[in-house]
Amino acid sequence: MARGYARYVLGLMVAINLLNYMDRWVASSAGPSIEKDLGISDAQFGLLGTAFLLVYAIAALPFGYWGDRGVRKNVIGVGVAIWSVATLFTGFARTFGQLFLSRAVVGIGEASYYPAGTSMLSDFFPKEQRGRVASIWGAGSTIGIALGFAGGGFIAEHYGWPKAFFVAAIPGLILAGLAFTLSEPLRGAAEQMGQAVAKTGEASFKNFALLLRIPTLRAIILSQTFLYFVLASNAFWLPTLLQRRFELKPGAAGLLAGVVIVVGGLIGTLAGGWLADRRAKINPKAHLQVGIAGFLAGAVLVTAAIVSPLNAGPIPVFFPVFLLAVISLYLYSGPFTALSQNVVSPGLRASAVTMLLLVAHIFGDSHSTYDVGQISDWLGGNLQAALLITSPTLLLLAAIAAATGLRTVKADTEKMEREWAETSTRQPVAEPTTATPA
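Predicted structure:
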């Protein structure tokens, strides 16, 4: 497979990731309309996010195992098809129970994509490029969030919230078909040491549990557990906060939130991957250091944005400060994704992502939207105070957790490379065609 094909695969994966996050966040922008139409509270609406994330985390277990044992393009295609159909049915929901069930099924579909996709891309691109590749891939998520916010709010305001889900579902069925046509790369095709193989037998419950014995991977997972709470709760409640605090209409709030997320997310994601790959040539700790710096800056900037003056409106203070906060918080994306692959064997890379999703979502963001909604209800609908209580504290904890991996990252990366070189010679060798690293 030529280098150009690897870039085509990356482009398709970016498109799927865009749709992934658009499907997730279209509900957030349409939230006030859904609450009014179905007569549900902040806590109930927050529970919809919990339903998605909790199911997403648990469903990642079987799909992650399948991703390390089976054909990854098929895992991706099946997942995209499931979540697209579930999104379509969300538009037909007329009760809270129906809405809850459809959003939970979206989590099942999306759980298949990320572990298999991360593993597959790591076999198309070498270690030296993975930070940038992961950042480009992650950039799709920021565009997807923006489209979900802006498009969801606009469609909900002018055509009704069900149609927002109909529009989000259709492209997914097309992308699912394209995923099934991809060529599957060999495992380990982009490694400097060891040989590329068709499949491995490494994926097992025992080896899955042993992944937590890798210190750097533990640090990444714990750090992202704290971070995911902040990212999910802020993104989920941002359109509602703008509508309540600055009295914006749903379309305007969704558009403003979308602009902040897409611009800040793109800048932060792409800059983080580029900076980490560049610094990693001379400093093996660079991937972690970039993320830590972003978390610390983000803690200060998120606080400043939330307490910004009300009488000035959202543009003079809130918008630029929150934009800088988003840039800072997204610096981690490419570097941490790349690092989670660099310290893990090619035969267990989908499992490593599954471990991250399981821990970080169950203990991090699966309950975050509900928690913030419940705190808001306790405080009389004060989302501002609810976000101030949670966000800065958890970002500081994310930075501390990531810092625990600084002394182990070099050793863990070198250990993986040595062990893969030894074990790959005992794995089934594939057909002569192998993926050429881009």
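Summary: Residues 87 and 330 are 26 Å apart (CA to CA).
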